[in-house]
Amino acid sequence: MSAAVDPASLPRLADLPIPADVRPGKGWTGQMVELAAHIGAFDTLRIVAAYGGQSVYIPIDPERNPFRELIGPAKAKIVSQVYGPYQFFVPVARHAVDRAKRGGVLALVRSGQLSKRQAAVILGTSRNYVDYLVRQPDEDGPPLPALRRQPVIDPRQISIFDVLPPTDGG
C-alpha cells in the first residue's frame, strides 16, 4: 500500500499547462476550429483560456493586437488580418480547455504513475468519474512529467541489503 499523499500538495486542473500538441476535439466551437486553422490549436486554447467570455476588439494594426503578448507578433498579425477590424467574441469553451489539460493526468493514471484518488483531487472530481474517464478511448494526452508519482522512502527504514551479510556465491 502506498503512503498517503497530502491533497493540498497536488496541483489543481486550473494550474496545469495546456499541452503543446493539443488537437481540436470535443468542446471546440466552430469559431475555435477556424481560428486554429490560422494560428494552431495550442495558441487558440491559450487565447480561450485567457480571454474566454470576453468581446475583444481586434485592430488591423498587429502592434495593437491584444493577443500579441500571448501568441507572439507573427500570429497576432495573422489574427489581425483575418479578424480585424472587428469585435471578436472569444468563446468560454471551459470544457475544451479542461479536456486538453486533463489528458496528461489520465495518461499517468493509465500507466500506473498516478493513483485515481490523486487524479480525482487534481481534476476536482470524484474517483468514479476518473475511473470512467480513464476507460474512454478519446481521453488522451501526453503524460505530465511533473505529476509522476515519486517513491516515498521513510528515512527510518533500513535497507535489507545493508543488514544481510555478503554471500560467497554458494
Notes on the protein architecture:
The structure is a single chain. A two-stranded antiparallel sheet has the order 1-2. It has eight helices and two strands, in the order ααβααβαααα. With 170 residues, it is mainly alpha-helical. Among the domains are: 64 residues; 51 residues, no CATH class.
The percent range for helix content is: 40-55%
Sequence of strands across the biggest β-sheet = 1-2
Count every beta strand, where a strand is a DSSP E run of 2 or more residues.
2
Q: How many helices does DSSP assign?
A: 8
Main pleated sheet = 2 strands, antiparallel
Low-confidence sequence ranges: none
Q: Strand fraction band?
A: under 5%
Could you tell me the mean pLDDT?
Answer: 86
Per-chain topology:
Blueprint: H1 30-39, H2 41-51, E1 55-58, H3 68-71, H4 73-83, E2 86-89, H5 94-110, H6 116-123, H7 127-134, H8 160-163
Helix pairs in contact: 1-2, 5-6, 6-7
